[in-house]
Amino acid sequence: MPRDLGEVQSQLNGWLGNESSYICCSMVHWFLQRGQLLIENGERFLHSIFVNITGPKPICQQLETSNQRYRAVLDRSDSVIFEFNLKTGRAIFSDVWKKKFSSPR
Predict the structure, then answer these.
(1) Tens digits of per-residue pLDDT, 33-79?
(2) Which member of 8, 13, 26, 81 has the lowest number of beta carbons within 10 Å of its beta carbon?
(3) What confidence category does residue 14 fall into, taking pLDDT thresholds of 50, 70 and 90?
């Protein structure tokens, strides 16, 4: 058994749950890797799936940026803010709301 097998397996396990970008034909392509190392009858196998997420990636990045901006404004506001989901009837209250009115029941 190779001496660095444990380190290689650890690096592969970290790599198999990540998003990566690759450049092909002057275009950036995003892939989500999922997989695992398998041992069967003493032999090691690498089972891996690559999912092309190039299409939704910009939308996800825009949503993340929007959420970060929203959180920054909310954190710096002295206003009482809450969100109410009409479909579920669930309300989300800002920290200022909780400080001024105590946590809602």
Answers:
(1) 887 777 888 887 877 888 888 887 788 888 889 989 988 887 888 88
(2) 26
(3) low
List Cβ neighbours of 97 (8 Å cut-off, separation of 6 or more).
Answer: 80, 81, 82, 104
Ordered by start, the domain boundaries in the chain are 5-79
d(C-alpha 44, C-alpha 17), whole Å: 19
Q: Which amino acid, residue 72?
A: A
Helices (H), the chain: 5-15, 57-76, 95-101
Q: In what order do the strands lie in the sheet containing 43-52?
A: 19-24, 27-40, 43-52
AA letter at 92 = I
Q: What share of the chain is helix, strand, coil (3-state, %, to 5)?
A: 35, 35, 30
Task: Extract the tokens encoding 60.
Answer: 């996800």
